[in-house]
């Protein structure tokens, strides 16, 4: 599938829940803690149908996210089914890491990370903004850093093909920890990416005092390590720009939705929200109600496919985050 601007769509990011065991201020507005009623959220069967149809249209990569996807009941069953869909080449999960080290089978010999890996999940993206326990508790509303660190070890032991650590940049919170995060990733051979704060969920967090642009983060890193060398040959499936650190050869990434003016040029993504809206862009209010199609007994897979194509036709050239975008949906429901 290709849109009007030449974006070739091969990647579907799927939120399977709006629920979470953490409360990150930049994701979930504190005042709003009501979860969606269960019947509003797509069933696993509905999600699998969408992905199956997507795969026939050229979707090759799926990343399962939320909310916290590992909080949803029977999630390993879902991942197993996902692994059986023909045409998918890459299945990933985005997680806060808190539940990865949990014993997850009868007898407790396997962790949640092991079960994901066995269910053909290739890549795990784990959020880690800070290595300081107090800062972590403050940022996420939960004192779970030890569990996350265990989760990272469990993911390493499970043998994912790639594990990425994602750190959202916030001035006054983690700019003094960039070096520590880099060392942490290097010691474990993990790919670290720094992400600019985006105005999703709530405008209160994205203030000038909080916002730390990737350009400034790069300068802070160069101050310690020397000039970063762009790695144009290095690409993952997303908009990150990668650089090599002098000396160690370590590669780190930067995701600058706000300040990188080329950010949208290579976009290959659609999003499916947990209540079945197909969204052509995270940074645009456009979204289309696929659930109504899925729940209409008269609608066939061909109708779902047509719906997909129509949404791709409506994909904007670029996001609207820089144009006074006003969030109207929780990130947690859209799926980051
Ligand atoms: N719960 C999982 C996690 O935390 O990784 C998956 C869902 S979370 C919404 C996915 C990613 O979105 C996380 O890396 C999180 O840090 C990021 N995120 C959430 N709100 C954000 C914001 N306002 N700006 C930038 N990134 C954000
Ligand atoms: Fe939960 Fe992830 Fe959002 Fe934090 S960023 S509240 S862990 S969904």
Secondary structure blueprint with pairings:
Elements: E1 11-15, H1 44-56, E2 61-65, H2 75-83, E3 90-95, H3 112-118, E4 123-127, H4 133-140, H5 145-158, E5 162-168, H6 178-188, E6 191-195, H7 214-225, E7 229-230, E8 241-244, E9 251-255, E10 269-272, E11 277-279, E12 288-289, H8 290-294, H9 301-313, H10 331-334
Parallel strand pairs: 1-2, 1-10, 2-3, 3-4, 4-5, 5-6, 6-9
Antiparallel strand pairs: 7-8, 8-9, 10-11, 11-12
Helix pairs in contact: 1-9, 3-5
The structure holds S-adenosylmethionine and iron/sulfur cluster.
Residues 20, 26-27, 65-66, 68, 94-96, 127, 166, 168, 195, 197-198, 200-201, 331-332, 336 line the site of S-adenosylmethionine.
């Amino acid at each position: 599938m290709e849109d009007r601007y030449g974006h070739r769509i091969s990647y579907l990011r799927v939120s399977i829940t709006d629920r979470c065991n953490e409360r990150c201020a930049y994701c979930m507005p504190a005042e709003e803690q009501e979860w969606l009623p269960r019947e509003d959220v797509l069933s696993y069967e509905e999600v699998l149908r969408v992905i199956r149809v997507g795969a026939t249209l050229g979707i090759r990569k799926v990343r399962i996210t939320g909310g916290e996807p590992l909080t949803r009941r029977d999630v390993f069953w879902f991942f197993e089914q996902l692994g059986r869909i023909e045409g998918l080449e890459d299945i990933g999960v985005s997680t806060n890491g808190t539940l990865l080290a949990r014993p997850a089978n009868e007898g407790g010999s396997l962790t949640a990370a092991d079960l994901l890996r066995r269910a053909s999940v290739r890549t795990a993206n784990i959020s880690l903004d800070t290595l300081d326990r107090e800062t972590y508790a403050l940022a996420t509303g939960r004192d779970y850093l030890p569990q996350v660190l265990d989760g990272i070890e469990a993911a390493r032991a499970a043998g994912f093909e790639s594990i990425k650590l994602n750190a959202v940049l916030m001035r006054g919170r983690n700019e003094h920890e960039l070096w520590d995060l880099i060392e942490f990733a290097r010691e474990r051979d993990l790919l670290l990416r720094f992400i600019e704060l985006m105005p999703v969920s709530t405008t209160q967090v994205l203030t000038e005092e909080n916002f730390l642009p990737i350009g400034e983060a790069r300068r802070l890193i160069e101050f310690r390590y020397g000039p970063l060398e762009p790695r144009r040959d290095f690409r993952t499936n997303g908009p990150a720009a990668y650089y090599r650190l002098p000396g160690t050869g370590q590669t780190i990434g930067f995701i600058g939705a706000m300040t990188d003016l080329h950010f949208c040029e290579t976009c290959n993504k659609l999003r499916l929200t947990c209540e079945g809206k197909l969204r052509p862009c995270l940074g645009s209010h456009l979204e289309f109600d696929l659930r109504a199609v899925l729940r209409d007994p008269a609608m066939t897979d061909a109708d779902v496919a047509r719906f997909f194509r129509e949404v791709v036709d409506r994909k904007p050239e670029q996001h609207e985050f820089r144009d006074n975008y006003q969030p109207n949906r929780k990130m947690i429901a859209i799926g980051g």
